[in-house]
């Protein structure tokens, strides 16, 4: 078991869905289970998440974000990582850039999950102009975690469905790195129909690695948030980029597998909670 005197602290800037496992209801428990103190800056509050569910309530918290971060600054709070996900407007993108400027230090990590779309489609509430704004946010990040749809949007290129070629994935990774982040983790990567995983790229060493698992049938909401939260948890526990991606792939796949076997409603998210024991073993925390 690891013995650490300094507890890492992460600022998580995401929306909060009361029901349906995604965003803050995924990020906070995963980070906490990994021994990390998680501070939440909600961008919006929804009754449920928006994937496949109609009639949800939505309260925009844009006007609350600056007062929250100014209060945090007045308390001299310091963060080992800043982790952003769903942002609901151009103004929120600008506020998050201000947050980066306010809380960035030489030794902390900024991870941007550029939540915009999936399966080749931009989420209905977003525009291509929003994607351009997200690109400027990624320029300020140390590490970005897009899926292949979001990668195409960030690069203003057409989306290509898989299976992919090594040449396409490696070209995409290098172009994403050229936007500014030192590290890129690309999700939804596969070269064969029965596999699914992630590709990692470290721009400082021009190193590319892959992590795959067996593909599980179906489409599951919130898995991007599960993956990114697990990835950051591993990075904060001093694992390398590739090791962290492997831990995140295993944790996400295990959570999906439990959900698939239980045949629960796919819209409600995956059973990540009961995957914690193996996750903590991989993190060497137990």
From TrEMBL:
GO CC annotations on file: cytosol
Domain of life: Bacteria
Single Gene Ontology MF annotation: pyridoxal kinase activity
Domain Pyridoxamine kinase/Phosphomethylpyrimidine kinase: from-to ranges: 32-263
Cross-referenced Pfam families: Phos_pyr_kin
InterPro entries in the record: PM/HMP-P_kinase-1, PyrdxlKinase, Ribokinase-like
PANTHER family: PYRIDOXAL KINASE (PTHR10534)
Name of the featured protein: pyridoxal kinase
The organism of origin for this protein: Parabacteroides gordonii MS-1 = DSM 23371
């Amino acid at each position: 078991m690891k013995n650490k005197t300094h507890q890492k602290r992460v600022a998580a800037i995401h929306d909060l869905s009361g029901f349906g496992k995604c965003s803050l209801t995924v990020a906070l428990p995963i980070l906490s289970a990994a021994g990390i103190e998680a501070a939440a800056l909600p961008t919006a509050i929804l009754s449920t998440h928006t994937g496949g569910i109609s009639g949800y309530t939505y309260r925009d918290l844009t006007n609350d974000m600056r007062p929250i971060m100014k209060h945090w600054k007045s308390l001299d709070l310091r963060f080992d990582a800043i982790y952003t996900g769903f942002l609901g407007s151009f103004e929120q993108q600008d506020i998050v850039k201000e947050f980066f400027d306010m809380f960035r230090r030489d030794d902390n990590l900024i991870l941007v999950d550029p939540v915009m779309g999936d399966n080749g489609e931009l989420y209905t509430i977003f525009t291509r102009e929003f994607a351009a704004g997200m690109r400027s946010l990624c320029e300020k990040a140390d590490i970005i975690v897009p899926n292949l749809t979001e990668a195409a949007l960030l690069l203003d290129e057409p989306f290509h469905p898989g299976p992919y070629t090594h040449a396409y994935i490696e070209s995409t990774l290098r172009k994403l790195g050229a936007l500014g982040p030192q590290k890129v983790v690309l999700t939804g990567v596969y070269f064969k129909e029965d596999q699914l995983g992630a590709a990692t790229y470290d721009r400082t060493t021009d190193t590319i690695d892959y992590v795959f698992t067996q593909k599980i049938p179906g489409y599951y909401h919130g898995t991007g948030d599960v993956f990114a939260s697990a990835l950051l948890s591993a990075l904060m526990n001093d694992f390398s980029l590739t090791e962290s991606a492997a831990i995140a792939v295993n944790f996400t796949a295990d959570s999906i597998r439990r959900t698939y076997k239980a045949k629960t409603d796919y819209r409600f998210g995956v059973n990540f909670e009961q995957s914690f024991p193996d996750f903590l073993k991989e993190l060497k925390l137990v």
